[in-house]
């Protein structure tokens, strides 16, 4: 994450981001399991871990209608995420 990016985001949107990292998918998974539901808005697991989390109901679909710039995303990248 580039330095200053989160501060700039907060300045432009008024939304304060709490940014945390994890050493491995297993660490991230353990954090998610121990915190209450909704404690995290966004996580970025490795591809192979997404299936495990999906099967356990830990991942929600994104409502694309709420993303005003969704049309700016690269369709080739979106197809890889399916």
Automatic annotation (TrEMBL):
<dbReference type="GO" id="GO:0042597">
    <property type="term" value="C:periplasmic space"/>
</dbReference>
<dbReference type="GO" id="GO:0019808">
    <property type="term" value="F:polyamine binding"/>
</dbReference>
<keyword id="KW-0732">Signal</keyword>
<keyword id="KW-0813">Transport</keyword>
<keyword id="KW-0574">Periplasm</keyword>
<protein>
    <submittedName>
        <fullName>Spermidine/putrescine ABC transporter substrate-binding protein</fullName>
    </submittedName>
</protein>
<dbReference type="InterPro" id="IPR001188">
    <property type="entry name" value="Sperm_putr-bd"/>
</dbReference>
<dbReference type="Pfam" id="PF02030">
    <property type="entry name" value="Lipoprotein_8"/>
</dbReference>
<dbReference type="GO" id="GO:0015846">
    <property type="term" value="P:polyamine transport"/>
</dbReference>
């Amino acid at each position: 994450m580039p330095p200053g990016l989160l501060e700039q985001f907060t300045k432009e949107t008024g939304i304060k981001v709490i940014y945390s990292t994890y050493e491995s998918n297993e660490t991230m998974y353990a954090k998610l399991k121990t915190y209450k539901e909704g404690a995290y808005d966004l996580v970025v697991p490795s591809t192979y871990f997404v299936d495990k989390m999906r099967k356990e109901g830990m991942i929600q679909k994104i409502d694309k209608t709420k993303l005003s710039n969704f049309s700016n995303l690269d369709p080739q990248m979106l197809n890889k995420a399916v």
